[in-house]
Amino acid sequence: MGSCSSRPSHKANGSEHQQYAQMWVVPVPHVLEMTGSLQPHETLKERSLLEIWNSTMFTIFVSHQWLGFQHPDPNEERLKVLQLVLKRLIAKQLKIEYDIASSFYGRKLTARELHGIEEWYIWLDYFCVPQWVEYQVPALAEEQLLYVKSIPSYVDLCDVFVAWSRVLTKLGLLCLCGTDIRRIPEISQWKQIAFPVVTSLRPL
Q: Is 107 exposed, middle or buried (0-12, 13-18, 19+ CB in 10 A)?
């Protein structure tokens, strides 16, 4: 599946941060077809639902707070909300609002990009990082650490950053908060963010 955008030139030269593990992503159509709760990386990999990222892929980095110690979505809420948001974006039923920096520097999603949401890809830790807590395999813990250390690189290669708020999830909305960038190692030290940071999604 190709990318819906050729806009992001920052991806052409890769990331300035070191990548210790390959970057996996999930195509939006696969996310829309999922049922039940969020499934771990290993399950998606076994089902061939993951793809290795390349520079042609328009990718959303989804940062979120886990709602449980062993599972990010124990009550099976988040997948439904994520699917609802994607469907409403595809149907053009949501208004996207950006942070001040994104608005000032013109780093906003173009009409062409928004028209091709079905061709987007998603990076979400539970999908794209080996889950040691889930499987309790010692070797997996070391592998997981390499993926975690690679997160600054993953963010750098994405086109849009999304921070998922637990509070607004309960309201059926996906809240995107640029300040949550500081929770990711090293990202708070970046001098410039090369992609749009969305602050909220509101029904039209």
A: buried
